[in-house]
C-alpha cells in the first residue's frame, strides 16, 4: 500500500521541471514522503521498518540542508541550482526503496 504511494510521489518529483524550480511543491512532496515513511515504520514487516528508517533519516537530512539553503538564496539562478540539487537528492534518497523490486 505505502509502496504504491511512494512510487507515485517519486514519479511526481521526477516530473517536476527544473526550469520552474517549484521549491514549494518539491518540499510538499518531500513532506508527504516523510509522512508515509513514518507510517511505514509502524508496520509489522521488519524489513520495511528498517528501510523506512534509513530513507527517512536521509530525507530529513535533505530537508534540513538543501531545502533550507534554497530558501535562503535570493538570486533566481542560484535558487534554481539549489532546487535542482534538492530534487536530485530527494530522488536519490528514495531510489533505495525500489531497488529490490
In brief:
The chain has helices at 2-15, 23-40, 46-72, 76-95. With 101 residues, the protein is an all-alpha fold.
Plain-language structure description:
This protein is mainly alpha-helical and 101 residues long.
State the helicity in percent bands: over 70%
Class computed from helices, strands and strand pairing: mainly alpha
Strand segment tally: 0
- Rg (CA only): 14 Å
Count of helix runs? 4
Estimate the mean pLDDT confidence.
Answer: 91
Q: What amount of the residues lies in strands? A: under 5%
Distance between the termini: 14 Å
Helix-strand blueprint:
Blueprint: H1 2-15, H2 23-40, H3 46-72, H4 76-95
Characteristics of this structure?
0% strand, mainly alpha, 101 residues
